[in-house]
Amino acid sequence: MTHRERILAALDHRTPDRVPVDLGSSYATSIHAHAYAEVRRHLGLPSEPEPRYLLPRAVSIIPADDIMERFQIDTRPLVIGAPDRQRGGFTADDVFVDEWQVTWTKPEGGHFLNTNGPFRHLIDPTPRDLDEFSWPDPEDPGRYRGLRERAQTLAQATDHAIVLDLWVGLVHIAQFMRGFAEWLEDLVLNPTFAEALMERIEDFWVRGAERALAEVGPYVDVVQFVEDLATQRGPMMRPDLYRRMIKPHHRRMAEVVKRQGKRLLFHCCGSARAFLPDFIDIGVDAITPVQVSAAHMDTRCLKREFGRDLAFWGGIDTAEVLPRGTPADVRAEVRRRIDDLAASGGFVLCAVHNIQADVPPENIAAMYDEAIEYGRMV
Description:
With 378 residues, this protein is α/β, with parallel strands linked by helices. It has 14 helices and 14 strands. 41% of the residues lie in helices and 16% in strands. The longest helix has 26 residues, at 191-216.
């Protein structure tokens, strides 16, 4: 199979010639710049003076072709451009404000963290506060300039599956703008404001997604958007609250993608099991990152309960095995997840979320080498 055929077979629950693998196709399947430099050194590849960043605030990299070919990666990313009318920017070396007027601060040696937002300190916000805010423009031409050409070039120059990375979803943006605790409280105590905020963000997302998908046409295979609805232990909110207030928005967002015949990859960290029936219901094809260290995320059980309707993308533990295990431990982890998830297709292998700075390069190589070798035996 070609790389593209292999990914599509897995997502369509057909058995590919080997388990497909991903690195760097999305905002949450990439690699930290430090780990990237170390694995290049380990493999004897020349250093990159200016690597391409996929998401600068996560210090994550779009790997170069030599790494992708060495690990036989089946995917390639396609990222929306920056708006021409860019608001915000860096206010200091370690602080920047994004187009949603959300402040991000980078602690020493860490990632940028959301530290403030335009509605964070409002005591009793109303929809009128939203009317007074200057919202980002989803039609800004900078977002789409050259997008079709880049998609066409990728599709025609390679036989890889092209993954379009759309914006993070309305839950994330609402939390960034309002504050994590404040937004969760609003869902119960101030639902009028919470609903109005989500409607504004959904409008941006839907209009932008429709424009992006019109631009990329037939050249994109998979579309991802990012939400987080769970913690390490369980759902972030009651599932019935999700179904009443958030799921209708997610359904409309998913419909934009599905109308274009694209496979939908839904990112949700944590113990996401309670929401999987809802994701299937709105048309999600695959869930990522399959956080195996979280509660209720046993891969054998997930495959048995949901594997007919949902594919799994990720699955290799980044909490313990990748950073702290030996290469032999990593190889055993790869075999376990393939055994649990790959029967009759339905599995794309990669790390749970981005490979972090503390992962030894030997373990990264062991993960992909074992995936290719053992993945042919399924």
